[in-house]
Amino acid sequence: MGTMDRVTKVFNSSDEILFDDSSKFIIMSDCHRGDGNWNDNFAKNQNIYFAALNHYFNQGYTYIELGDGDELWEVSKFSEIIREHSDAFWIMSQFYKHGRFLMVYGNHDMVKKNKDYVAKNLYKFYSERENKYIPLFEDIKVHEGLILKYKNTNDKIFLLHGHQVDFLNYDLWKVSRFLVRYLWSPLEFLGVNDTTRTAKNNKKRTSTAKKLTEWVIKENQMLIAGHNHRPMFPEIGAPRYFNDGSAVHPRCITGIEIVSGSIMLIKWSIKTDNHGMLHVAKDILEGPRKIGEYFASLH
Length: 299
Fold this sequence. Notes:
32% of the residues lie in helices and 26% in strands. It contains nine helices and 14 strands.
């Protein structure tokens, strides 16, 4: 099966979620939450991430995590990630308890495709403080893809991680995981860059974006992906391939908001106010643009 057919297969089998102009979504991916070790790329942005999610929770948003939320190539035990980033999992669990959390798996957390793995590791966790198991994402379904269906027009926005067009990170993901865990991670400690990773290889990043854009054109659909860590926000009339970036950019995290019938690319970072005090703040990088304008260009 070709990569285009593979993406289409996911599209045709994805659950649909209805939304309208009153809906609020924040879409983020590629958090790569680790175990707090020297190569935990999420650690430097964990406070920014928590502040952003706390804002979105209080404002009534639904949080969609678009793959590679957890770094399960470098880290073999999910419990170690939960223990290290308990604040992040706490705020995510609050979204879930209120029916406002959706999870998509990527290549670095492909093990979440296994229902038994999800039941064992995501439904609950062991609290050392309380000395008992605590519900986390009880009975959660982890998706390969999702579709947001606009009530006004019945047009669709397809959400998937994007590794489906990447041979090394889809067909050979177990081989890639082995190399990352036992070869590249130790070498990175010595300053050697892992060129097999899409996010760290410019040629692979460009190739992934090109293939996903080709699918958008071929199927005449609107797509939001992650995977290559490169934010993308097209103009009206251009191929409707969006990318939310990642939560492991140096000094910031990026994401895509859908709110009040509009879509925008946003960035959260630490800033200094006029009194020299640090605070976490949001900037709009692109948009907002009306969803309806993108859908109108489909027809």
